[in-house]
Every structure is written in C-alpha cells, then in structure tokens.
C-alpha cells in the first residue's frame, strides 16, 4: 500500500516537473536576432570604396518610431573617430548607414538594435580598409553624427538589460501552473489515502 502510494506521488511529481520544464523550455523560444551577414564582411579587407556599412539579421529589426532612432550603427577607426555620415536606416532585417572612410587601417562597426522580440541586442565587428592609392580619405568626426539616436537606443538598452530574459508574465504563468498542478496532486493523494483507509 505504502509503496504504491509513494509510486503514485513520484509519478505525479514527475508529471509536474515535466510540465514545468516544458513551459520553461518553451519560454525562450522568442530568441534574439542574430547577425547573418555584414558588408563589409566581418574580418575582411575592403580594397575599394565603402559607401555604406550594412548588417543583416536573421529576423526583423524593430523600428517602433519608424525613423531608425532605436538603432545604432557606428563606424570608427582605431583612434575612435566616426566615419558614418548620418543616422542608420532600418529595412526589414537590414540596417545600414552611409560611410566615408578615412585612411587605410582597421575599422570597427558597433551596432545596437531592438530585436524582433522587443529586446535590445548589440555587437561589434571589424574589417580592414586598404583603398587604392590616390583615394580621398575623409577626416572623420570626433562625435557620432547621429548622437541623439545613440542616447535613445542606449536608454532602451539600459531599461531592458535590468530585466531577466524571461518576462515577469511568463514567470508568473509558470509559478501558477506549478502551484495548480501541486494542488491537484495533493487532492489526488489525499483522496487515494482516504480510499485506502476506507478499504
Ligand atoms: Cu529577448
């Protein structure tokens, strides 16, 4: 009798655990956008003019204000000078910014977007620039030409980075399901115990 009841309790606990696990695994299914390709390619050497820098993601980039203001796309040299010439634009899975590069050397692209799931995602990649001799080189700018948008996107990133990757709603849902299942298990075990007492 006792062994059978224990077995039932274990089965019920396994069921609860399994269901809770399923919910937990299902929650992060809304993964963050990740980079699929870049222009220039990451780690490549550009030996011709680079009129724009582009980053393509696996999923759409959110642009809630429809003006690219929550997107950052900056191109800097080793000295930290900026060579993007305006604010970035967002088009589906692509973000791009016009550029006028300076001297030959290493350039770093810094990007920050709002992922399809509403979370900010950011990253950097580098490429080398080796233009043909005689190519005019831009002087670059000490400050980002799209300064305002940097601040806005930064604020969005800060506010979201404080929260966990699982939203509070999901957590409350999981806790609710587990509590409900635990209650069901208790009721079933109590009933079974009473039945075995009656018998
Ligand atoms: Cu996310």
Summarize the structure.
The chain has three helices and eight strands.
Structure explained in plain terms:
- This protein has 199 residues and is of the alpha+beta class.
- It has two domains: 2-29 and 167-198; 35-161, Immunoglobulin-like (Sandwich), CATH 2.60.40.
- It has three helices and eight strands; from the N terminus they run H-E-E-E-E-E-E-E-E-H-H.
- The chain has helices at 2-26, 147-161, 168-198, and strands at 35-39, 45-46, 52-57, 72-77, 89-91, 94-98, 105-114, 120-129.
- The strands form two sheets. A four-stranded antiparallel β-sheet has the order 1-3-6-5, with no helix packed on it.
- A hairpin with a 5-residue loop joins strand 7 and strand 8 (120-129).
- Helix 1 packs antiparallel against helix 3.
- The longest helix has 31 residues, at 168-198.
- The chain is rod-shaped.
- It starts with a helix and ends with a helix.
- It binds copper (II) ion.
- Copper (II) ion binds at residues 32, 115, 117, 119, 165.
